[in-house]
Design a protein that fits this description.
This protein is α/β, with parallel strands linked by helices. 38% of the residues lie in helices and 16% in strands. It contains 5 helices and 7 strands, in the order βαββαβαβαβαβ. A 7-stranded parallel sheet has the order 3-2-1-4-5-6-7, with helices on both faces.
Length: 232
């Protein structure tokens, strides 16, 4: 897809991978609708519009989509489901509210956003949905059972959706990033983000690569890891 002039929605746009993706999409000429709970102060661009939205709330998602179409036009070509969080802890000591918070954000929020954009993408017979899973969606991790469960769910959702909407000209790509230097690790005891991890811009570059492939070329799954996570 030629991204010039195309409308792209990016969730969780305030920082990390979401912010880097929005910035790169703008460089490629896209019109970006950033959905999030906080406006990114460092992102000021004539083709960037911010829409306050907590993806856990389906009413807010619908309102954000309505406002996006009202301000940017009916057509929506790209959805990057990036909003998410991870919390650590043993299963028998895990707070149930925190468990639900992860599922409400990482799984239910992704469903609400996807459900909102699909009718328009089907009318267009063109669209691309990118879901950010994680290496934790491919491998179990001690004390991260809840987070892994949400990211395994993203994987299953993505694979099923891809088969459902491919006849409508809609692509679905699922990404599985390994350790990336973001605020994600602020809530993970014993782990600190550092320069040897991948950078948000690295993930953004992979997203844009998948988006810019020819119509009949579909990148379904991408697993990414830092080459030397502990440095030389």
């Amino acid at each position: 897809m030629d991204l010039n002039g195309k409308v792209a929605i990016v969730t969780g746009v305030s920082k990390g991978i979401g912010l880097a993706t929005a910035q790169l999409l703008l460089l490629r000429g896209a019109v970006v609708a950033g959905w999030g709970r906080r406006r990114p102060a460092e992102l000021q661009h004539e083709r960037f519009s911010f829409f306050e939205c907590d993806v856990r709330d389906e009413v807010q998602v619908q309102e954000a989509f309505t406002n996006t179409q009202r301000e940017l036009g009916q057509q929506v070509h790209v959805l990057v489901n990036n909003a998410g969080l991870g919390l650590a802890g043993p299963v028998d000591g895990f707070d149930s509210q925190q468990w639900h918070r992860m599922f409400d954000t990482n799984v239910h929020g992704l469903f609400y956003c996807t459900k909102a954009v699909l009718p328009q993408m089907k009318r267009q017979q063109l669209g691309h949905i990118v879901n950010i899973s994680s290496i934790a969606g491919l491998n179990g991790i001690e004390n991260m059972a809840g987070y892994c469960a949400t990211k395994y769910a993203v994987r299953g959702f993505s694979h099923s959706l891809f088969k459902e909407v491919r006849p409508d000209g809609i692509k679905v790509t699922c990404l599985y990033p390994g350790s990336t230097q973001t605020n994600f690790f602020d809530d993970i005891p014993g782990t600190t983000a550092h320069e040897h991890m991948m950078q948000p811009a690295d993930i953004a570059g992979c997203i844009v690569y998948a988006l810019e492939t020819p119509f009949n070329f579909h990148v379904v799954d991408v697993e990414m890891r830092p080459l030397q996570p502990k440095g030389r």
